[in-house]
Amino acid sequence: MSTSSVHFGPRLVASPTGRLRAVALVRPPSSIERAVPVAGEPNAIYARALEQHEVLRKTLAFFDIEVSLCDPAGEDPYEVAAADAAIVFEDGATITRPSVMSRRGEADRIQAEFARIDVPIAGHIAPPGLFDGGDVLLVGKTAFVGCGARGNAIGRSGFGAIARAHGYDVREIALGDATGPLRSVAGAVARDTIVLAEGKVDPKAFAGFKTIVLERGEDLAAGVLCLGEHHVLGDVRYRTSLRALRKAGVTVEAIDLYEFTKLGIPAGMLAIDLKRD
């Protein structure tokens, strides 16, 4: 037997676009109603956010995806964007260090949750590094890292070293100061395919991958949650973009996530991938 086929320890995220088997979600905090919405949108409504989050949980369960549901650790409304707290590789999780001070407690909460569900820790972003998991998009064996208003060079360098140790090539992607996290404007569709929001990221930066570029005005539609190869979950309100994805051969599950997209949080940022085939 070839030694390259031997794997020791847990097998968590074997492939970033493999069939999704388990995730961690964070319940919306009541403070979500006090968050400043994106331009042109009204404030989020807590009761509706809870309902939509529960539909998300049930939808994932329908596809036999195990869900670990965590309570928020503080009062920051953006804690529901669970993907900011950790990135999981095949043999363990990297705990990030969010840019916003009020979210720093998330590291302790998610690490305690990982201990409870037996997810080992593969690394940490240590001070003075700042790094948000929503600025990482893993596709194939490439880790795309967003460089914008969030995080700092020390944090990006630290994450890059961890990703390379796990066999990933690392590419930094320039983001404008007005652009949100990388994963809000780019999403993994398959091991060789990425969906992008037009005008938010340069498609040339993703050379070597097929790209599906969505038309302007539905930027957050690119922030899909990949359920498996050519199978994603997105927000039902982005009808034009969902049609474009389906036309490109992608199976799309569409649910209402409006209370989160009001805050610039798409489907792909609501979950931490824990296990993938």
The arrangement of helices and strands along the chain is EHEEEHEEEHEHEEEEEHEHE
Biggest sheet statistics: 3 strands, mixed
Annotation, overall tally of beta strands: 15
Count of helical stretches: 6
The name CATH uses for the topology is: L-arginine/glycine Amidinotransferase, Chain A
What is the CA–CA distance across the termini? 21 Å
Rg calc: 17 Å
Strand content: 25-35%
Question: Which structural category fits the helices and strands?
Answer: alpha/beta
> What is the second-level CATH architecture?
5-stranded Propeller
* CATH homologous superfamily caption: L-arginine/glycine Amidinotransferase, Chain A
How do you describe this structure in short?
With 277 residues, the chain is α/β, with parallel strands linked by helices.
Explained architecture:
The relative contact order is 0.19. The chain has helices spanning 46-62, 106-116, 153-165, 182-185, 239-247, 258-261, and strands at 20-26, 66-70, 86-88, 93-95, 121-124, 136-139, 142-147, 169-174, 186-190, 193-197, 210-214, 225-228, 231-235, 251-255, 271-276. The strands form five sheets. A three-stranded mixed sheet has the order 2-1-15, with helices on one face. Strands 3-4-5 form a three-stranded mixed sheet, with helices on both faces. It is α/β, with parallel strands linked by helices and 277 residues long. Strand 13, helix 5 (239-247) and strand 14 form a beta-alpha-beta unit. The longest helix is centred in the first third of the chain and has 17 residues, at 46-62.
